[in-house]
Amino acid sequence: MIDSSELRHQCAQRLLEAAPRVPQLSAFVGQDGFVDEIIHVVDKRESAEKFSRMSTIAQFAERMAAAAGKSTNLEVVPHVTKLGGNGPIMANALASFGIKVTYLGILGYPNLHPVFNDFAKQAEVHSIADPGHTDALEFDDGKVMVGKHASLKEVTWPNIVARFGRDQFARKLDQASFIGFVNWTMLPYMSQVWEAILKELCPQLNGARRKMFFDLADPEKRTNDDIRHALDLIGQFQQYFDVILGLNEKEANEIGHVLGLPAAQGTPVALSRLAHEIADKLPIHTLVVHPTRFAVAVTAGQVSVAKGLYTAKPLITTGAGDHFNAGFCLGKLLGLADDLALLVGVTNSGHYVRTAQSPTLPQLAAQLQAWPNEW
């Protein structure tokens, strides 16, 4: 596992040296969109203004289980309302580095929802439907996401063609340095969108191979057949792009189960083995798995592992994985090997959960150099 001050300083230096190249990079990302309401669950209320919150998911689960057959009353307190969805969060993080970002998703139609106004100031934003809504119940050890997803059914290829344009989509696909398709699980027609792109647009692509990133986003609720079909489509994009598939620990075990692989405990050795076995079964360029305390990448059969910037008291956890993905993909876009790209990913995620802000590239480099003193 990477835990070297020398390597972190080398990574920071590589980022700073590459900084002039970053504004020349472009990203085309889509296609979800949510209004995220970050919520704390009250454990004990001490006064009208003061309360203690439930700190763990287990505590919340025990309270819920105790209500079976009896009912109960839970109080939740909104903490912050922010832009949400895997796509907007990842795209916003990429834009914070200085990459030229085009985002296509569901951010409000015909007018943007106000929560996306700041995002639209630093990225070229296009929307084809209203956003979903997520109540993100945050705890110190994770989050419980409760979503309202009706508008996600409007992410279809015919709707993209009608409200964004087939030719404009083709230009973005052809010209972007990086393409990101995320949140397959919540977008019920995303596989059909990918099929249309593969059939209608990819055969006409020109120029050098570029990076394409996929995030399935917790596919547990989808059927095994649906998941296998999505993995097959992702593999087909490898003909035209260097494909990166990103998974968190839970998703890695879910994909492993679908592929007939044994489950892995959350240790670096076990997840490295599982990641290697998954990568061996998928015709893609790179597989990356990011638990909270470390991250694993596999390219051409070679496994790299990096220690994460874990904090026991995060300011925010919703979007941590999306920030890891943005950092890792930045590293790959700049030509870094997997070990350094993993360091960029874990540092970007760690900075975000500690500060609730997406770092700039100089801030990212500074955080690499400051580690571990400030953590």
How would you describe this protein?
The chain has one domain: 3-Layer(aba) Sandwich (UDP-N-acetylmuramoyl-L-alanine:D-glutamate ligase), CATH 3.40.1190. The mean pLDDT is 95. It has 375 residues and is α/β, with parallel strands linked by helices. α8 links the parallel β10 and β11.
List keywords for this structure.
alpha/beta, UDP-N-acetylmuramoyl-L-alanine:D-glutamate ligase, 13 helices
Number of strands: 14
Strand order of the largest sheet: 6-5-1-9-10-11-12-13-14
CATH level 4 superfamily: Ribokinase
Strand content: 15-25%
Tell me the number of structural domains.
Answer: 1
| CATH class category | Alpha Beta
Show unreliable segments: none
Mean pLDDT: 95
The number of helical runs is 13
Measured distance between first and last alpha carbons: 18 Å
- Kindly identify the CATH topology: UDP-N-acetylmuramoyl-L-alanine:D-glutamate ligase
- Please compute the radius of gyration using only Cα atoms: 20 Å
> Helix share of residues?
40-55%
> What characterizes the major β-sheet?
9 strands, mixed
Instruction: Quickly give the CATH architecture.
Output: 3-Layer(aba) Sandwich
Order of helices and strands: HEEEHEHEHEEEHHEHEHEHHEEEHHH
- Shape label: globular
The helix/strand class is alpha/beta
